[in-house]
Amino acid sequence: MPYYTPAHIGMPLAEVDTPALILDLDAFERNLQRLNDSLAGRSIKVRPHAKSHKCPDIALRQMALGAVGVCCQKVSEAEAMVDGGVTDVLIANEVVGAAKLKRLAALSKRAKIAVCADHPDNVVALDAAAREAGVTLHVLVEVNVGANRCGIEPGEPAFNLAKQIHACKNLHFAGLQAYQGGAQHMRKTEERRAAIDVACEKVKGTTALLAQAGIPCERVTGAGTGTYLFEAASSVYHELQTGSYIFMDADYAKNDWTESGIPRFEHSLFVWTSVMSCPAPDRAIVDAGLKASSVDSGMPSVFDTPGAEYIKASDEHGVLKLSAGTALPLGHKLKIVPGHCDPTVNLYDHFVCVRKGVVEALWPITARGALL
Which of 146, 187, 209, 301 could be joined to 159 by an S-S link, Cβ 3.0–4.6 Å? Predict the structure, then answer.
């Protein structure tokens, strides 16, 4: 079927077809600046996570404001970023398998690329891939600092893996990946702060062993939108991997931000949707369902439309519960805030970038579907 774009530059938002992924440029730019302002006077680097936006246009804007590069999760995401002009990428994840390792080594000839490892066998495979390609791969040890996902245990296990990397002729030990993802959506500020305190202690134990052995640890990288100021104040971390701050999804909005120092970022990312059915006075159906907005972190929230609540999603339908006296006519268009921005972005080909009610740009989501 012919490729269809729901909008064109200069079109009023009201005429944009639905569902569409809308980026409010004014709110987006304020979020970029708020992060920078919150880190003023601190000697710490920002390396935003591109898995949130999958878009080189956004990555380059982040770098123009001082970011050292971006993070990715997959080799294919990194390839899309490099193709789009990004020159420094950390794959903050493990890369396993001969085909992926070959692509990783090839990509390191085009840009500054680093990758994580948490297993001795993976280190052996990375060294072999680098030797075959004639390159030196930068490798960080991923340390489990409490999220209990990937990551080798801190202390002796992480130290021994770093020693193995340091001894490889074709690898450069580039530091520690220490992301506490489980802390990002703990609702209370004190819970998030306590989780990062624990993470910092785990990192300190590992870096102390490295220092004793004379192995330089050039960076500790991690942090996310829910905690980044805690890592920034720790004197342990060198890089911050904030990602969702540019968009602020509905799930992050549920966090308590009081006494955290972390600014209240604005919602800038929306799914633009239309009322497609009005079957009852207390119910309206919109054309944005599971294929338009991820619900893994809960239902979207309805933005700037009092009396309407998004309560259920099926493949192509979203059910809005309407309070008494609320009427949404057939064809009415409204914004919903995704529950989780990252997988929602992955459902679309473009950001429809809007400023003051008019489409200003279409930014391709070039790393959409980048799973390999």
Answer: 209
Q: Which domain holds residue 43?
A: 39-248
Burial (CB count within 10 angstroms: exposed 0-12, middle 13-18, buried 19+), residue 36: middle
* Two structure tokens written together for 353: 């970038």
Q: Tokens 């192509």 correspond to what residue?
A: 316
Half-sphere exposure of 5 (CA within 13 A, CB side): 15
pLDDT tens per residue, range 316-364: 999 999 999 999 999 999 999 999 999 999 999 999 999 999 999 999 9
Residue 292 lies in a domain: yes
Distance CA 45, CA 143 (A): 20
Is the pTM for the entire model greater than 0.70?
yes
Q: Are residues 273 and 240 in the same domain?
A: no
Same domain flag for 178 and 290 = no
Q: Helix 120-133 vs helix 98-107: angle between axes, to the nearest 10 degrees?
A: 50
Please provide the average confidence, as pLDDT, over all residues in the chain.
97
Overall number of domains in the chain: 2
The total number of residues shown for the chain amounts to 372
Q: How many CB atoms neighbour CB 346 within 10 A? A: 16
Upstream peptide bond of 19 is cis (omega within 30 degrees of 0): yes
CA distances from 235 to 81, 117, 204, 207, 333 (A): 30, 24, 10, 12, 48
Tens digit of each residue's pLDDT (9 = 90 or more) over 204-243: 999 999 999 999 999 999 999 999 999 999 999 999 999 9
